[in-house]
Amino acid sequence: MLGWGAVIIWFSANVLSQAAFIGTHGVPYDAATILAALGPWSWVLITIEFSVWVIIGVVIMQKIRATRAKKIHSIF
Fold first, then answer.
1. Structure confidence by residue, pLDDT tens digits, 29-48
2. At a CB cut-off of 8 Å and minimum separation 6, what does 38 contact?
3. CB within 8 A of 69, min separation 6: which ones?
């Protein structure tokens, strides 16, 4: 439940952010423009975001493995 709530909040925040930007500038923003505006800091942000996704992936894989291990132990 918590995971789906986070996904819904993330999606809604992205939609509202894009709508606000379009309302202000008349065109949607894109990643290339944002990264170009950030300059060298863009690599720091990309590294942080990549790290967050890796951590999320590891947590999900651990949960899947734990669930499978429980199922295997309950069978025997």
1. 888 888 888 888 989 988 99
2. 45
3. none
Joined together, the tokens standing for residue 34 give: 């944002």
The C-alpha atoms of residue 44 and residue 38 are separated, in whole angstroms, by 10
Distance CA 62, CA 56 (A): 10
Distance, CA of 67 to chain centre: 23
How big is the chain, counted in residues?
76
Task: Return the closest-CA partner of residue 29 out of 37, 21, 20.
Answer: 21
User: Hey, what are 20's tokens?
Assistant: 């606000």
CA–CA dist 39, 41 (Å, integer): 5
Q: Name the pTM for this structure.
A: 0.60
